[in-house]
Amino acid sequence: MIVVAVSIDQGRDEKVKKLVKSYVGRRNLTFINLLDPRSEVAMQYGVRGVPMTYFINSQGIIVAYASGYRKWDSKEGRTMFEQLLSEQ
C-alpha cells in the first residue's frame, strides 16, 4: 500500500510549497505529498470537498472513498483498512 497526499492549496508556488512543507513537518507525515495548485487532479477525481480520501487498487481502480475528516487510527478505520487490504 502506498499513501499519497495531494494539496490543492493555491497561491504563489514558493508560498504554497512552504505552507505544505510546514504542515507535513508539524504532523511528522512520512508519505508522499504532492501539489495540485490548479486542482487538475482534484477535477479528474471529482473532489467535492476536503479532505477527500480515495483508495485506489493496484489496477488504478477506485475501490472506496471518504469525504471529510476521518479518524483513520480508530478501531473502525483499522477495520476498514484491513478489509481493503484483504481484497487485494
Write the layout of secondary structure elements.
Elements (H helix, E strand, L loop, with lengths): L3 E4 L5 H15 L4 E4 L4 H5 L7 E5 L5 E6 L7 H12 L2
Parallel strand pairs: 1-2
Antiparallel strand pairs: 3-4
In N-to-C order, the SSE pattern is: EHEHEEH
Distance between the termini: 10 Å
**Mean pLDDT over the full residue set:** 87
Strand order of the largest sheet: 1-2
Main beta-sheet strand count, sense and barrel state: 2 strands, parallel
Shape: globular
Task: Give a verbal description of the structure.
- With 88 residues, this protein is an alpha+beta fold.
- 36% of the residues lie in helices and 22% in strands.
- It folds into two domains: 1-38, no CATH class; 48-88, no CATH class.
- It contains three helices and four strands.
- The strands form two sheets. The chain has a two-stranded parallel ribbon.
- The chain is globular.
- The N and C termini lie close together (10 Å).
